């Protein structure tokens, strides 16, 4: 192995709940990617390691990071097609395409996420009710696999592997480049409208109703105590057609550095939520916003994550059908009264698509909760896990690093199909992460 391009590193999942000492490799040439892969028994790909759960590493696998492969390879503005290397970050992609008023609308919420990471997680953006997940924008993929070599994937070529790779959490090999079908975007400025909501049930109703008028609609709700549970703000973003000139976005480094002592606790969360809600009430119901703050809401606000401290947090993102939402919330609230969990964030948005394999995608409502990582909350979360089957809830394995094999098997109905097809493609199951091993994928 070329020692120049590998090093040992202690690596944490983004939520900081799991860590491992791993061998990290950063090839800068395709030949080196081949060499490293041929010489390694177990491999996993890693992008910017911004997945909340440990998807990009494992103590027994070498983590191959292709961030040095970050070129735009082909671009055709008339056909709206672009081919980029998978180490390119979202902000680098946008800095290229927005000059032509083009983009892909399924952008996950942080600018340094890589194309490879977004495709392997089948990521979605805020407008997922209309635009679905990134799968909808992918035309083809170039994959490198230790045993199969270089493979072109699309609806027409190697369709089964194409299907396994999108949302396949890096288990089919290294995504080296991706061709996207781009969409027109009239402007890179937004108008944001706010609506106040008193309960989570009312919020759900409004999000479903308003869905037809606005493609970007999501909420921020309080969940710091039962009295105010669900009280919050619904945000609707509209593209502001008045601004056509695009100025390149400046990039600054990830600022994720957990505080030594955690700041978030019941009292600080209640206080900040109260202030945040009041500010939203007192400010104008409509304002202009720039592209980055709408599409990447935590960019520049990394303190929110740093405030959890070294022990980090756990995020639970759930898909649930609208008809089951109210009953689930009612049981959730009963358990909330009993266990008094510390929840820092509750948010709703709409999602569209078709659930298949490991993909977090469906025509359902997407609920997000962030919890302080402590034993009381873990116990509460385990009680909520028991409701998944009853309410046909799909939990995200990208976000929730706790998910057990039992919960995964019960909720991901097509996971055995995925496993079977993956096993057919790769008898030795070369590409493995902490999560794939725990879930026995
Ligand atoms: C602040 C924040 C906001 C977020 N918002 C959203 C959101 O709105 N919507 C959403 O869907 N997600 C969101 N995410 C999650 C994020 O989109 C995914 O976790 C994404 O996979 C992270 O990409 P990454 O480059 O960091 O990849 P990593 O986390 O390093 O890896 C993720 C997965 O991709 C695989 N992978 C990475 N590169 C390659 C490659 N070249 N070839 C094959 N496999 C590869 C890895 O093996 C792993 O399974 C958010 C994350 C953060 C931190």
Characterize the structure shown.
The two termini are 28 Å apart. It contains 14 helices and 19 strands. The protein is of the alpha+beta class. The strands form four sheets. An eight-stranded antiparallel beta sheet has the order 15-12-14-13-17-18-16-19, with helices on both faces. It is 28% helix and 25% strand. It has helices spanning 30-39, 90-97, 115-120, 128-131, 159-165, 200-210, 266-282, 291-295, 303-306, 322-339, 375-385, 405-411, 415-425, 434-438, and strands at residues 6-12, 19-25, 43-46, 62-65, 72-76, 81-85, 102-103, 138-145, 149-154, 174-181, 183-184, 189-197, 216-221, 232-239, 286-290, 313-320, 343-350, 365-372, 394-395. The chain has a domain at 189-411: Alpha-Beta Plaits (2-Layer Sandwich). Flavin-adenine dinucleotide is lined by residues 14, 44-51, 55-56, 66, 86, 108-110, 113-114, 116-118, 120-121, 123-125, 169-170, 174-175, 298, 398, 433.
Proportion in β-strands: 25-35%
State the CATH class of the domain at 189-411: Alpha Beta
Structural class: alpha+beta
CATH fold naming of the domain at 189-411: Alpha-Beta Plaits
Cα Rg: 21 Å
Which cofactor or ligand species appear? flavin-adenine dinucleotide
Largest sheet: 8 strands, antiparallel
């Amino acid at each position: 192995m070329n020692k120049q391009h590998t090093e040992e590193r202690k690596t944490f999942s983004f939520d900081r709940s799991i860590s491992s000492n791993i061998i990290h490799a950063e090839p800068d040439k395709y030949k080196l990617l081949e060499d490293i892969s041929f010489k390694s028994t177990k491999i996993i790909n890693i992008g910017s390691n911004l997945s909340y759960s440990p998807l990009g590493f494992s103590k027994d696998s070498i983590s191959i990071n292709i961030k040095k492969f970050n070129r735009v390879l082909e671009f055709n503005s008339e056909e709206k097609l672009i081919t980029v290397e998978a180490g390119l970050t979202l902000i680098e992609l946008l800095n290229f395409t927005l000059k032509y008023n083009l983009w892909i609308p399924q952008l996950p919420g942080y600018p340094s996420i890589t194309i490879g990471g977004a495709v392997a997680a089948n990521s979605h953006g805020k407008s997922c009710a209309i635009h679905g997940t990134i799968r909808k924008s992918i035309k083809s993929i170039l994959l490198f696999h230790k045993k199969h070599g270089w493979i072109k994937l699309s609806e027409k070529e190697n369709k089964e592997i194409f299907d396994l790779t999108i949302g396949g959490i890096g288990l089919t090999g290294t995504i080296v480049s991706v061709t996207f079908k781009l969409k027109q975007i009239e402007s890179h400025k937004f108008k944001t409208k706010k609506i106040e909501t008193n309960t989570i049930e009312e919020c759900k109703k409004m999000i479903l109703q308003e869905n037809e008028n606005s493609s970007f609609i999501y909420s921020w709700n309080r969940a710091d105590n039962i009295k105010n549970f669900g009280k919050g703000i619904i945000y609707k973003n509209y593209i502001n057609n008045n601004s056509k000139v695009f100025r390149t976005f400046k990039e600054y480094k990830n600022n994720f550095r957990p505080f030594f002592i955690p700041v978030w606790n019941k009292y600080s969360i209640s206080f900040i939520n109260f202030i945040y809600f009041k500010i939203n009430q007192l400010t104008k119901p409509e304002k202009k916003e720039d592209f980055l703050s709408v599409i990447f809401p935590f960019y520049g606000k990394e303190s929110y994550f740093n405030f959890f401290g070294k022990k980090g947090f756990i995020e639970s993102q759930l898909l649930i059908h609208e008809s089951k939402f109210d009953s689930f919330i009612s049981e959730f609230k009963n358990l909330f009264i009993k266990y008094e969990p510390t929840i820092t964030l509750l948010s709703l948005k709409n999602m569209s698509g078709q659930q298949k394999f490991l993909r977090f995608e469906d025509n359902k409502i997407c609920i997000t909760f962030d919890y302080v990582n402590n034993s009381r909350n873990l116990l509460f979360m385990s009680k909520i896990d028991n409701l998944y089957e009853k309410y046909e809830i799909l939990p995200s394995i990208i976000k929730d690093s706790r998910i057990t094999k039992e919960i995964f098997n019960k909720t991901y109905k097509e996971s055995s199909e995925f496993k079977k097809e993956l096993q057919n493609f790769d008898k030795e199951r070369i590409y493995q992460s902490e999560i794939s091993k725990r879930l026995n994928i």
